[in-house]
Specification:
By secondary structure, the protein is α+β, with helices and mostly antiparallel strands. It has a domain of 50 residues. The chain has a 3-stranded mixed sheet with strand order 2-4-3, with helices on one face. A hairpin with a 2-residue loop joins strand 3 and strand 4. Helix 1 packs antiparallel against helix 2.
C-alpha cells in the first residue's frame, strides 16, 4: 500500500498468468529458504533493507536482507522486484 514517494499510491492489484505464478513459487521452493539465516545484517549504515517471506506447507520463513546476504536470496528479491515494477497494475481500492 504505497503512501508517498512511490510510483503508484494506494492499493493496487495485478493477476499474473499461471506460468509466472508457478515459476515464482518453484523458485522459492527450489531455493529452500529454511537453509538460510533469518537475517543478514552488519554495522553498516544507510543501506536499504529487503524482507523475503514465504509460506509453504504451513511453515513461514522470513528473512531480513540488509548486508552480506547470499546471491541466491538477491536473485529471488530481484525477480520479485521485476514483477513489482512491471506494467498492468490496477487500482485495488475500487
Amino acid at each position: 500500500n504505497g503512501k508517498r514517494s512511490v510510483e503508484l499510491e494506494g492499493t493496487h492489484v495485478r493477476t499474473f498468468p499461471p506460468d509466472t505464478a508457478n515459476y515464482v513459487f518453484n523458485a522459492f521452493v527450489d531455493a529452500n529458504l529454511w537453509q538460510y539465516k533469518n537475517e543478514y545484517t552488519e554495522q553498516v549504515t544507510d543501506l536499504p533493507t529487503t524482507y523475503l517471506s514465504f509460506t509453504h506447507e504451513g511453515k513461514t520463513k522470513r528473512i531480513k536482507m540488509y548486508y552480506g546476504y547470499p546471491e541466491e536470496l538477491e536473485n529471488l528479491a530481484n525477480m520479485l522486484q521485476e514483477l513489482a515494477f512491471s506494467k498492468g497494475w490496477q487500482n485495488g481500492s475500487e
